[in-house]
Write a structure and sequence with these properties.
GO terms for molecular function: RNA binding. This protein has about 160 residues and is an alpha+beta fold. It contains 3 helices and 4 strands, in the order βαβαββα.
Length: about 160
């Protein structure tokens, strides 16, 4: 598999990221190239196996080739060998129909979210309208209370005899 080091659909797996984070990239490579070449060094091999198994369990890919080797790392002060694992996955027969169904579901979800957002915005506008009406009614009530108080005071002044 070392001859495939420049594979156009190569995905290098790291142990620093969660395996599920590689699934969208692998799906895109499968869609564009019809296959994906997963590669990992050392402890990242278990993450790579997880990525491959996720794709296989979702019926998106099938295994074409698996390879293991020791890769000589010469870029360090003291050259050493690290275990390396590579898996070549190809699109499954159901891949295109599964991706189409996922796109339809995502589009339907986007429509639902947009409708919910529009409904929420309309509810906010109605609530804002009610607040304006209440504020206007409150100001009118305050003006009415002042008028009533003035009128009550005028009655009191008239009702008291002047001595």
């Amino acid at each position: 598999m070392t001859a495939e080091a420049q594979h156009p659909a190569r995905l290098l797996i790291s142990s620093s990221r969660k395996p599920i984070s590689y699934v969208p990239a692998a799906k895109r490579l499968l869609q564009e190239h019809g296959e994906v070449h997963l590669s990992a060094l050392g402890i990242a091999c278990s993450s790579m196996v997880t990525v491959a198994e996720i794709l296989k369990s979702r019926s998106l890919a099938t295994e074409k080739r698996v390879g293991t080797m020791l890769e000589l790392l010469e870029d360090e002060p003291r050259p050493r060998q690290k275990p390396k694992m590579e898996v070549l996955l190809v699109k499954s027969a159901e891949f295109d129909s599964i991706i189409a169904a996922e796109k339809e579901a995502a589009a339907a979800e986007a429509v639902e979210k947009a409708a919910a957002a529009a409904e929420k915005e309309a509810a906010k506008e109605v609530e804002a309208g009610k607040e304006v009406e209440a504020k206007t009614a409150g100001e009118a009530a305050t003006v009415g209370e002042v008028d009533d108080a003035t009128a009550d005071g005028a009655e009191d002044a008239v009702a008291e005899p002047v001595v």
